[in-house]
Amino acid sequence: MSTDFARTWEPLVSLQRAIESAMNQNFFGFATTDQGIFPAISVFKGENELLLTAELPGTRKQDINIEVKNDLFRVSGERKVDFDPKEVSTHRRERPEGLFDRTLKLPFAINAEAVSASYEDGILRVTLPFAESAKSKKVQIS
Amino acid sequence: MYHLTYQNPVPVTKKESTPNETTYQGKTFTPLADIFESKQNLVLVLDMPGVSKDLVQVKLENDLLEVEGRVNVNELTAKTPIYSEYNVGHYYRRFAISNKINRDQIEAKMTDGVLTLTLPKLPEKSPKKIPIS
């Protein structure tokens, strides 16, 4: 096709999509543990804190529990998909539901007292400030 | 682990062959969907984490219901990712709608990153006799 030169990356992008959908569809069966992670978590490093974000769409705020201890972060709870099987028939079910419980080991000790969390648009954001012991100290050369 | 490319939703309007087509830079995902049917309604539930109410667009054209959600990643671009299990991108999915749906009364609701579309069904038409002239 004459327009192919403008879409150089398209084969790579569609390959990545195919891999991602294979991961989600249990294509690899028990051959991999990299599937069905819920919630998916990302961690970002700020100057004095870590920002942890997790995708938890449709989970109610009161159903999410967060625990922090030293360098361990734990998030647990339940995601419910509300429907009455007596009232409705189901055409398609793709959204995962059920209990979840994940613990991450963080690369730094965390000041548990100062941890703050917010939940907006289905994204959980947790700010984890470094503990004093984890902060670097400037050393003067005498 | 994914390679991270965070880009802000910058609208880019192509002006050559398609005058009104707007595209956004960055990845686009297909949101996971549940479809339920009750006596009165067909209900579409879509997971679009990170999309706020004002960045969702639902469009019905001919027989296609198009859902588009954009995410704002301003806050994340300033930080260094050190671990990542999901990629951030916009959402797009479309559904073919049958003629049994009342198209004037489709309702959309966005809560906690979940878009709920309620499509009321048209009442069953009673059989009609056609007189022969």
Describe the structure.
The complex is a heterodimer of chains A (142) and B (133). Chain A has 142 residues and is mainly beta. Chain A is built from 1 helix and 8 strands; from the N terminus they run αββββββββ. In chain A, the strands form 2 sheets. Chain A has a 4-stranded antiparallel beta sheet with strand order 1-2-8-7, with no helix packed on it. Chain A has a 3-stranded antiparallel beta sheet with strand order 3-4-6, with no helix packed on it. Chain A is flat and about 75 Å long. The termini of chain A are far apart. The relative contact order of chain B is 0.24. Chain B is built from 1 helix and 11 strands. Mean pLDDT of chain B is 81; it is low at 1-8 and 12-20. Chain B has one helix spanning 74-77; strands spanning 11-13, 22-24, 28-29, 33-37, 41-47, 56-61, 64-69, 80-84, 90-96, 107-111, 114-120. Chain B has 133 residues and is mostly beta strands. Chain A binds chain B through residues 37, 40-46, 50-51, 53, 55-60, 81, 83, 87-96, 107, 119-123, and chain B through 32-39, 43, 45, 47-52, 76, 79-86, 111-114. Strand 5 (89-93) of chain A pairs antiparallel with strand 4 of chain B.
What's the alpha carbon Rg of chain A, rounded to whole Å?
A: 21 Å
The radius of gyration of chain B is 20 Å
Q: How would you characterize the largest beta sheet of chain A? A: 4 strands, antiparallel
Largest sheet of chain B: 4 strands, mixed
Instruction: Identify the quaternary structure here.
Output: heterodimer
Helix content of chain B: under 10%
Beta-strand residue percentage of chain B: 35-45%
Strand order of the largest sheet of chain B: 3-9-7-6
Chains forming the largest contact: A-B, 35 and 29 residues
> Distance between the terminal alpha carbons of chain B, to the nearest Å?
73 Å
Q: What is the percentage of strand-forming residues of chain A?
A: 35-45%
